[in-house]
User: Which sequence fits this backbone?
């Protein structure tokens, strides 16, 4: 099927559109993830890092990074003809966190990217989604040259609740990213089902 058109006389399918956030610390791979999977040219709001920003942008561990997202990244992926995900990548630095409330409005769930070299950088995102009861999973972005740790050790280091999914991924790999996004949708659906069961 061609997006938005019918095929061989079939009535057009009106897709369900869902909003997913991609969050995490500075330089963790959010822009890369959105770009790896988006079927449209992603909207990016990247600016060059400057000397003026060095005191507030901690680049230790990501010294080669030369740009940063200052508003959001946006992409789209059609998982099925009737299911489309809109992806919103959040800015990672603390001075841009005020935008998260706007971006999270109406979100089904989120992927929190983590980097084992700077694991503490994703604490703020995890705390944000826990406090607002927005379903999320943690995707450990496996950077080249970064140490590998068992998932259980990472879960304990992040103090994740047992029901929060955690997976290893490569933000550059389209299939790995798709699996993470499908995981978010499934987790959010399971959470919604549990809430309905409690209230009935």
Assistant:
């Amino acid at each position: 099927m061609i997006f938005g058109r019918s095929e061989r006389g079939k009535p057009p399918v009106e897709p369900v559109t869902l909003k997913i956030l991609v969050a995490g610390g500075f330089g963790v791979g959010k822009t890369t993830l959105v770009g790896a999977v988006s079927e449209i040219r992603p909207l990016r709001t990247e600016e060059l890092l400057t000397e003026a920003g060095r005191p507030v942008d901690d680049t230790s561990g990501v010294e080669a990074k030369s740009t940063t997202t200052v508003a959001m990244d946006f992409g789209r992926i059609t998982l099925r003809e009737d299911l489309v995900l809109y992806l919103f990548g959040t800015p990672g630095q603390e001075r841009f966190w005020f935008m998260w409330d706007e971006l999270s409005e109406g979100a089904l769930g989120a992927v929190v990217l983590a980097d084992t070299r700077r694991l503490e950088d994703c604490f703020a995102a995890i705390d944000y989604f826990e406090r607002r009861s927005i379903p999320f999973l943690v995707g450990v972005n496996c950077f080249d040259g970064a140490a590998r740790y068992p998932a259980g050790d990472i879960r304990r280091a992040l103090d994740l609740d047992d029901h929060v999914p955690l997976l290893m991924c490569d933000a550059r790999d389209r299939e790995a990213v798709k699996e993470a996004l499908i995981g978010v949708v499934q987790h959010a659906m399971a959470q919604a089902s549990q809430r309905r069961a409690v209230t009935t």
